[in-house]
Amino acid sequence: MKKTQIAITYVILLIAAVFMCFPVLFSLSLSFSDLSDILRGDYIPDSLNWTNYVNAFNTQPLLHYMINSAITGVLSTTLQIIFALLAAYAIVFIPFRGKKIVFMIMMATMMIPGEVLVISNFQTIRSWNLLNTYAGLILPGLASTFGIFLFRQNMMQIPRELKEASTVVGISDFGFFIKVVAPMVKNTVVTLAIYFFLVSWNSYMWPLLSTTKDTVRTVQIGLRQLQNTEAVSDYGMMAAGAMITSLPTLLLIFFGQKRLQEGMTKGALK
Amino acid sequence: MARKNKKEAEEKQKKPLPLWIIYLLPSMLIFTLFVIYPFVKTIVTSFFATSNTGALTQMVGLSNYISLFTSETYLHSLGTTFLYTILTVPLTVVISLLLAVLSSSNLPGMGVFRTIFSSTMGISVAAGSVFWNLLFHPTAGLLNRVVQWFGGEPIGWLTDTNFAVYSIAAVSIWMNIGFSYLVLMGGLKNIDDSHYESVEIVGGGFFYRLRKVTIPLISPSLFFVVTISLINAFQSFGLIDMLTGGGPNNSTNLMVYKLYNDAFVNFRFGSASAQGIVLFILIFLISRLQTKLTERLVTYQ
Amino acid sequence: MSKIELRDLTKSYDGKVNILEKINLEVEEGEFYVLVGPSGCGKSTLLRVIAGLEKITDGTLKIDGKTANHMLPKDRSLSMVFQNYALYPHMTVKDNILFGLDVKKVPKEEQKRRLAEAAEMLGLTPYLKRKPRELSGGQRQRVALARSVCSQAPLCLMDEPLSNLDAKLRGQMRTEIRRLQKKLGLTVIYVTHDQVEAMTMGDRIMVLQGGKIQQTGTPLELYNEPANTFVAGFIGSPQMNLARARMTDMGLILNDSLLMPVSEEERGRLPQGGRWQIGVRAEQIELAAAGDPLAIPVRVVNTEMMGNETQVLFEVGKELFTARWTGQYLIEAGQDLAIRLSADSFHFFDEASGMLTRAALQIKGHAALTA
User: Fold this and answer.
1) What whole-number distance in Å separates Cα of residue C234 and Cα of residue C354?
2) Residue A34: left if φ>0, alpha if ψ -120 to 50, beta else—which one?
3) Which of A156, A260, B55, C353 is deepest in the core (most CB within 10 A)?
4) Residue-wise pLDDT tens digits, B234-284
């Protein structure tokens, strides 16, 4: 590349980076500022002032919400992965009649938007008395077509001979699943774990519907409440709340970006 | 022979459930209860009048659909959704593609850029809305301070019917760049260097390379991103709920937000179900189009 | 320890097409038995049926005299070596070799002893801590063999174990596998599509085609008396030259174009009938001496010079015949050449069925072998 080309590249990227970062950095800055400073238009704090964070935690049970989100995230991620692993294993390694149809139906459900299902699912969860429970929060999302699809892609790369070699020495189906298949798809497990957790942590509509009390309410809905309470004019505190909410997933993206990128590509290139 | 038959009978008794069912059971249960059943139920409900709790009261045929497509609010909502889609999807994809192409080289510092550009994938709708709300704020927000500094009048970014949908679209583009960028970056990584080298040999420039090599070779990723972005645009809910509540004057009342309100605020489940089915048909068509186009392109290559 | 018997074994996936049809086979203890045939002939399926990986549609399989049709693979005391080696990429060489012994409840001490022995035998001792991807193709192959050795199963089934190796390594591993088999007294059933492997390794060979047995026998039986045109064409390299032949007063006419004089004595030794398919090995075609009255003129299409031998291709009707002569002959394409053919060195096959009616009476090198 020519020098001018490199220079132009850097300039464009730099401008774009500033734009992409700006909303977050601006909020970060506000989260350490006094309200009076903000109102005057002085957005840059003189020192790290943690008052806004303390207030955010005091105004709403944010910590409690975060724990809820963490529990929901871990539970749903783990279960989604286990369910998808099992399903993909059956589809790839166990011969049975109608396998193609089962797989096709599963893939077809990818086209049904969650918003279409939400009304009926809400009624189901309500009729089971599972509103305001972790079970109600995670149950409807436990079968991941995307996960099954990725695992299937991955498992199809495993030579059939590995299964046969296991059969010959007398290793059971489940033994093969645990000892061979699961470790061999561990990269996909990591990718999906990041993805599922991200989606769970950031999910909005379903938690909004299925939680009406603080007990299991997630942090996103907590943030919504923070914005809708009387504290709406305390901009520093709002910023602090949003920063807290975003921290776990931002860290996840920073460390898992490469993995996620590889996994997403596999999904895109079906 | 008798012994053989007996043995086979024993084998059959030993297997209460075929193996595959056991492995598929958890997923099948969830699919049936929370995808297939509600889908069917939504279709059915869309032909019924319902009570406040969602119980079906009377079969009304197509009248839910008819009243939808004669309702000005709904048509307006559809129109707004299309406008919003046209505003967000092309820009999201073009910006992501440009950023991905520019940051895919091995120049120093690219890792930092990649992290920054994909970072919005880690930001939730709720948090993203709060960040932007602080920028949009009519008095304390930065944007209006900048406008005033240039001598302009403060703008009601989220409260002026002329601006609200554009403001929301801007936030949406910002939020969706992270995912699009990540997928396109992955697609770029899969392109073999030899393709670029052959362009170098014929001496093609940046745009020649983009047009002749990069875009054709990442077209599957590109289609995927376009489709997901389209679907996301049609499904937008969180931003509206956090930032405008559909207002002002319905100017940001997108399809899904209206659906949500009709179902859970107005308890008009029949109508909401019909809206859900319309949404499904739209998304189904987009997905089919993507598959068709991808197939054609891939075979063409 | 292990004797395998198949009686009228038939395999079908859909109940219509038979992948294997009425296969009869006996493999003796300590025998190296090769199943050979082109791809899709059913040889791998046969092996997998013996292993218990495929169900038997009809017929019986006996292992050591006991009917084993419904026996689970793990109860058949056999080991298996696969074409792609079936190594588990996430396990070390050591764990790969010992794979399955835990399930069989072999004590740890015993495992250690077997591992050391097998690793030593196959020269893997320095690599035990590595992962398969850090090994070369030949080393991976050895790991697969070591796994088989460690299992101490008396019967070893091998499915094209050498076809992923390059030619040189393949030659080495052929010898090594044979040596290992003799040393351990294993019964081996070995599947390959490569007739050279079959000829060089097998005590006995079964040639399969279209799910049916074409011929079984020792390598030389197959070479010298191919039961039909398929076996004739399949066994031996270069391929046996095959042609249609009919008898006339002037001699044999091959592929309606090449007239081949036949002496009175030879004529008396021809099989019944006047039309056959004939086959002649490349080394049985000779260069005619100058002035030979029985010489046949041909035009050379191509020559392949190997250094120690020369292969000459010429046209007989629309088919290409190959002649192979020891030594270096500088012959150009397009050159005219005089060759000599003897009907005594021809295999005669029935024109319609392709079944052998008379094997060659003279076989080059045969005398030396029996001497």
Assistant:
1) 13
2) beta
3) A260
4) 989 999 999 998 878 888 999 999 999 999 999 899 999 999 999 999 988
Inter-chain contact B24–A253, Cβ cutoff 8 Å?
no
Question: Is B223 part of any domain?
Answer: yes
Domain count, chain A: 1
In-domain check, residue A44 = no
Q: Is the pLDDT of residue A186 over 80?
A: yes
**Residue A252 domain-assigned?**
no
Domain with residue A211: its CATH number is 1.10.3720.10
Instruction: Show which subunits contact C, needing at least 3 CB pairs below 8 angstroms.
Output: A, B
DSSP labels, B225-257:
HHHHHHHHHHT--HHHHHHTTT-STTTT--HHH
How confident is the model at residue C249, as a pLDDT? 87
pLDDT at C367 over 90: no
Domain encompassing residue B284: 72-300
B52 belongs to a structural domain:
no
Average pLDDT, chain C: 91
- Distance of CA A118 to CAs A79, B296, C338, Å? 20, 35, 89
Domains identified in chain B, total number: 1
CATH code, domain with B94: 1.10.3720.10
What's the fold here for domain C4-229? Rossmann fold (3.40.50)
Domain that holds residue A218: 61-228
**A231 pLDDT band (50/70/90 cuts)?**
low
Contact residues, chain A to chain C, C-beta under 8 Å = 159, 161-162, 164-171, 175, 180, 183-184, 186
Asked if the interface predicted TM-score (ipTM) of this complex is over 0.90, the answer is no
Fold classified for C242-370: OB fold (Dihydrolipoamide Acetyltransferase, E2P) (2.40.50)
B57 inside domain? no
The pLDDT tens digits for C340-358 are 999 999 999 999 999 999 9
Q: What is the mean pLDDT of residues A192-219?
A: 92
In total, the C-beta contacts within 8 angstroms joining chain A to chain B are: 278
- Write down the mean pLDDT value for chain A: 88
Q: CB C100 to CB A175 under 8 A? A: no
| C-alpha distance from B4 to closest chain C C-alpha (Å) | 9
With CA atoms as reference, the chain B residue closest to A221 would be B126
Burial A10-21 (b: 16+ CB within 10 A, else e): beebeebbeebe
